[in-house]
Amino acid sequence: ANRRKSASDEDRTLLFLGSKNSGKTSIINRFLEKSSEGLRPTVALEYTFGRRAKNNDTARDVVHVWELAGGSSLSSLVDIP
User: What is the tens place of the pLDDT at every residue in 17-59?
Assistant: First the structure.
């Protein structure tokens, strides 16, 4: 079904950064209420999303989640001059 985006829909974007093996993926999965079984280390950059309806309404909140893998090789991508 094609559903047009209404003015009450909300999109948000989150960027997760952290040290290697710090639990970034576990936090994201808990937030999105997804299973944490069979997790594997993040390689480079990973994307996922989640949706939630508001109070039995058709309007939805959408969150776009980007996770940057930990490690020194990728830290230069987020250097602040």
Answer: 888 888 888 888 888 888 878 888 888 888 988 887 767 666 6
Q: Which helix (H) or strand (E) holds 48?
A: strand 45-53
Q: Phi then psi for 73, rounded to 5 degrees?
A: -70, -25
Q: How far apart are CA 11 and CA 9, in angstroms?
A: 7
DSSP 13-43: EEEE---TTSSHHHHHHHHTT---TT-----
Please list, in sequence order, all residues whose beta carbon lies within 8 angstroms of the beta carbon of residue 23, skipping any fewer than 6 positions away.
Answer: none
Asked if 24 contacts 54 with a C-beta cutoff of 8 angstroms, the reply is no
